C-alpha cells in the first residue's frame, strides 16, 4: 500500500515543480526526489499521459505558461501557513529596530500584526505602508519609484537610489522560489530592489511557505549564503539539506 501512495506524492511534487518553474530537467528531478532516473522517466510518462505536463527528451515542460499571480490572488493561497510564519517573523523584531518589509502576502501579514515597538519601518510595498501608517510606535518610510501594480510595489532607479541612504537591522525578503542555488522571484525589477536591500541589511530573514521549496522562478535574487534565517511552516528534506550546506537557520513557525 505504501508504494503507490509514495509514487503519487512523488508525482505531485514533479507536477508542482514543473508548474512553478515552467521547465525541469530530468537530472534535477533525480536529485530533488532521490530516486533513480528510470523511476523519474516512468513518472514523467504517466504524468504526460494524464496531460499534467509535457515530457521532453531531457525532462518536462509545463502544459501552460507559468504566469505570476496578482497580490490579490496570492493572498488567499496557503493562508494559515502564512499567518503562522508572519507571527514567527514578528518575534524576530526587537524594540527600537529598523526593519525593512518587502512586498508579498506573507510580509504584508507581518506588517498587519506589528506591535508598537518604536520601530522604523522601511518598505517599497504600498500595502505595508498602508498597514502601518498612522499607528503608534511605528514610523514608516515608503520608497519612491515606479509603481508595479502586479506586486503592489515600488521599483526602478528611484527606489534603488533611495535605498542607498538607509541601513536596516533586519530585512524580511519575500520570494517565490527556493532551491539549492538560492531564492528567486518572477520579476527583474523586484529582484533588483531585493538585492539592494540585502546589501543594506544587517540580518536577512526570508518568510516562505513550503510550497516554494524546489521552485526556481524567472530571476535569481541571491544565493543562500546571503540569507540568515528562513521561516516556514513545514521543513522538507531538500530545504533542510540546502540550508545546512549554506549555514542558513531554518525555523518552523509554531
From TrEMBL:
PROSITE patterns: HTH_DEOR_1 (PS00894), HTH_DEOR_2 (PS51000). SMART domains: DeoRC, HTH_DEOR. Residues 7-62 form the HTH deoR-type domain. SUPFAM superfamilies: NagB/RpiA/CoA transferase-like, Winged helix' DNA-binding domain. It holds the Pfam family HTH_DeoR. It comes from the Bacteria. Keywords: DNA-binding, Repressor, Transcription, Transcription regulation. InterPro entries: Carb_Metab_HTH_regulators (IPR050313), DeoR-like_C (IPR014036), DeoR_HTH (IPR001034), NagB/RpiA_transferase-like (IPR037171), Tscrpt_reg_HTH_DeoR_CS (IPR018356), WH-like_DNA-bd_sf (IPR036388), WH_DNA-bd_sf (IPR036390). Repressor of the lactose catabolism operon. Galactose-6-phosphate is the inducer. PANTHER family: GLYCEROL-3-PHOSPHATE REGULON REPRESSOR, HTH-TYPE TRANSCRIPTIONAL REGULATOR SRLR-RELATED. This is Lactose phosphotransferase system repressor. It comes from Paractinoplanes ovalisporus.
Amino acid at each position: 500500500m505504501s508504494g503507490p501512495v509514495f509514487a503519487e506524492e512523488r508525482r505531485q511534487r514533479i507536477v508542482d515543480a514543473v508548474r512553478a518553474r515552467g521547465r525541469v530537467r530530468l537530472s534535477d528531478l533525480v536529485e530533488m526526489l532521490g530516486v533513480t532516473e528510470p523511476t523519474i522517466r516512468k513518472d514523467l510518462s504517466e504524468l504526460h499521459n494524464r496531460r499534467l505536463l509535457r515530457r521532453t527528451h531531457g525532462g518536462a515542460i509545463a502544459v501552460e505558461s507559468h504566469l505570476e499571480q496578482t497580490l490579490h490572488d496570492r493572498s488567499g493561497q496557503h493562508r494559515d501557513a502564512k499567518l503562522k510564519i508572519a507571527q514567527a517573523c514578528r518575534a524576530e523584531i526587537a524594540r527600537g529596530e529598523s526593519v525593512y518589509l518587502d512586498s508579498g502576502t506573507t510580509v504584508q501579514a507581518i506588517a498587519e500584526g506589528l506591535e508598537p515597538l518604536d520601530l522604523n519601518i522601511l518598505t517599497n510595498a504600498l500595502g505595508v505602508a498602508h498597514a502601518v501608517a498612522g499607528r503608534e510606535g511605528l514610523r514608516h518610510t515608503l520608497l519612491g519609484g515606479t509603481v508595479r501594480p502586479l506586486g503592489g510595489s515600488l521599483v526602478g532607479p528611484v527606489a534603488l537610489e533611495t535605498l542607498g541612504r538607509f541601513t536596516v537591522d533586519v530585512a524580511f525578503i519575500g520570494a517565490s522560489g527556493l532551491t539549492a542555488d538560492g531564492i528567486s522571484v518572477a520579476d527583474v525589477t523586484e529582484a533588483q530592489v531585493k538585492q539592494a536591500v540585502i546589501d543594506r541589511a544587517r540580518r536577512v530573514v526570508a518568510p516562505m511557505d513550503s510550497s516554494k521549496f524546489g521552485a526556481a522562478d524567472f530571476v535569481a535574487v541571491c544565493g543562500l549564503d546571503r540569507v540568515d534565517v528562513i521561516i516556514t511552516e513545514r521543513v522538507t528534506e531538500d530545504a533542510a539539506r540546502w540550508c545546512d550546506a549554506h549555514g542558513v537557520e531554518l525555523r518552523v513557525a509554531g
